[in-house]
Amino acid sequence: MASVLTIGIAGGTCSGKSTLAERFVAHVGADDCVCVGLDEFYRQQSDEALADGSANFDVPEAFDFEEFVTAIDGLRQGRDVVIPRYDRSISRIAGVTTIRARPVLIVEGLFVLRDPRVLEMIDLGVFIDIDPAVQRERRMARDIGAYGRSAEISHHRYEHHVNPAFVEFVAPTKANAHLVLSGTEEIEASLERCLEHLERNARADGTPIRRVG
């Protein structure tokens, strides 16, 4: 397989990372583009931590970056890879999934722009910025509506886990992005800005320039 165009999408919780990644795949086509989410690589939390609410899913230590990096590297070399399938509704690994190598690879997640090994592999790093009040509202709505958590638990996790981790670990990675987008702009506008950036930063033969910026 020819050089795999690799795009990394990072940002805080509920900023629109998955939405942009899905739109990118739809634009390019599933035969030529695949997305791998960092959320599939959550480490297994203990029953005790899940029961007492101490499990923190918003810090780097919650993820298996070794397995994540290995998967990305394999896909970039044109190899199909087997990755975990994480079920957020039960906070458990629910099986495995085979990801087929494609010419375009999207990787998305909280800390995609934090690990130096990942930064070395991406051609375009995107950080999605969002107003904290909007982010909090979206996260609360998702926790309550999608995962059935109480408003009290959702509020506690946001104030004690989500927001502190964002400030300490996620926000600083915006400096590693080639392109910063708004999490409240129309998704078509965000996609167009990504495509324009890639077009502007291409070699004469059309292949991307690595580490643009």
Gist?
With 213 residues, this protein is an alpha/beta fold.
Word description of this protein:
By secondary structure, this protein is α/β, with parallel strands linked by helices. It has one domain (5-200): P-loop containing nucleotide triphosphate hydrolases (Rossmann fold). The protein is built from 7 helices and 7 strands; from the N terminus they run βαβααβββαβααβα. The strands form 2 sheets. A 5-stranded parallel sheet has the order 2-5-1-6-7, sandwiched between helices. A two-stranded antiparallel sheet has the order 3-4. The protein is globular, with a radius of gyration of 17 Å. The model is unreliable at 208-213 (pLDDT under 50).
- Helix content percent band: 40-55%
Q: Strand order of the main beta sheet, please?
A: 2-5-1-6-7
The unreliable regions are 208-213
CATH topology: Rossmann fold
Q: In percent terms, what proportion of residues is strand?
A: 15-25%
The SS-based structural class is alpha/beta
End-to-end Cα distance: 26 Å
| Strands, count | 7
CATH C-level name = Alpha Beta
Number of helices: 7
Number of domains: 1
SSE arrangement, N to C: EHEHHEEEHEHHEH
